[in-house]
Amino acid sequence: MLPMMGMVVSPSRYAVRRERRRIINGELRWAKTTSEVIRKIQILPDSLRATCILDIEEYLHTKCVDLSVQNPWWRNFNLKNLWLELQKNGLS
Questions:
Q1: DSSP type of residue 11
Q2: Mapping DSSP to helix (H, G, I), strand (E, B) and coil, where does residue 2 land?
Q3: Spatial distance between the Cα atoms of 75 and 71, rounded to a whole number of angstroms
Q4: 0.90 cut: is pTM over it?
Q5: Which residues of the chain have pLDDT under 50?
Q6: What does residue 9 show for φ and ψ, rounded to 5 degrees?
């Protein structure tokens, strides 16, 4: 079992989330604008879209460095502004 943010997460669940983040990074790493990110998030499969949005929300509340390492595409964006745009578009 892996401790994570006060919870115990099974290795298989951790591996699934890590793989989802890898796929998300592949889809979003070339996005240049917030609106482009929003469009790409909207067409992600449900499980990837949920992981993407929940990771952003968790990071904004906890500032967990591990999340930013696993989501390198974030470096190009202000996550607070992105979160506001996600809310405007009904994605959060």
A1: H
A2: strand
A3: 8
A4: no
A5: 1-2
A6: -115, 130
